[in-house]
Amino acid sequence: MNDDAREHVANAIGANLPFLRRYARALTGSQSSGDTYAIATLEAILAEPGQYQSESNAKVALFRRFHAIWTTSGAVFGDDADEADITRRARGHLAKLTPNTREALLLHTVEEFSASEVGAVMDIPSDEAQELIDIAYTEMSHHVSGRVMIIEDEAIISMDLESIVTDMGHRVTGVARTRERAVQLAEEENADLILSDIQLADNSSGIDAVNDILARSGDRPVIFITAFPERLLTGTGPEPAFLISKPYTEAQVKSAVSQAMFFSSTETLNA
Q: For residues 152 and 159, what is the distance between their CA atoms, to the nearest angstrom?
């Protein structure tokens, strides 16, 4: 491969790598395990760069290489030494899910692949991919309901999130627009899940608010919503298991909330 070709491959991978790491993190439930799979994917591409170059969609090609490794390795989930109890309990739930449904749902909702692209990534027909997505929605909808706190400073967005979460059968404990109010709300009622924006009304940080709450009330699933997800997916520190990009879709929120309720090793973040 000549230098121009190498640069083209590097640029194509670089643009999509943060999103592969996000997907791997959510899929495995572990930042370290997710990154291990991502690194193995890069090594596989470097070993056979011509095969990667032959595909027209760079993101599909990258995720396709990841899935080839994921499936041949036996789809091993993370096993961090400091793994939260909530993640250990989640493994029992995961074992009950139809094989490949979580992968298909994450690819379709969080990474916004079409059913045909999901099929290309997973090396299955598009109609089979759509069937897996539909099954995942059905199985996730049967999961136990819980209490959700929303940290969001924009009224229209917070109302939309509250509507989506409520329609799913969950109860919203309250909406906070600032870090201080979020901590106060958490002390008033314990939530099973936190859905948080990053930048809040008084220029405080949703990340700081979440860290304060987790330090006081203990571990629980957290979903962050941000217009700049790549800023939290740098590989330089702890990262959220579930990260939704703005503007989000209803399907993305439902997918993340359903999975986070039973599969998340929440880790504190540094702003």
A: 9
The candidate with the shortest Cα–Cα distance to 217, out of 180, 242, 192, is: 192
Question: What is the pLDDT confidence band of residue 47, given thresholds at 50, 70 and 90?
Answer: confident
Q: How far apart are CA 53 and CA 90, in angstroms?
A: 38
**Apex 239 CA angle, 95 and 199, nearest 5:** 125
CATH of domain 144-260: 3.40.50.2300
Cα of 127 vs its chain's centroid, Å: 24
> Given this structure, which CATH class describes domain 1-78?
mainly alpha
pLDDT of residue 239: 65
* 11-43 pLDDT tens trace: 878 888 988 998 888 787 677 888 899 999 988
**1-78 with 144-260: one CATH topology?**
no
Q: What is the pTM of this model?
A: 0.61
Q: Nearest 5°: CA angle at 223, between 17 and 267?
A: 80
Contact 151, 208 (CB under 8 A): no
Domain boundaries, the chain: 1-78, 97-142, 144-260
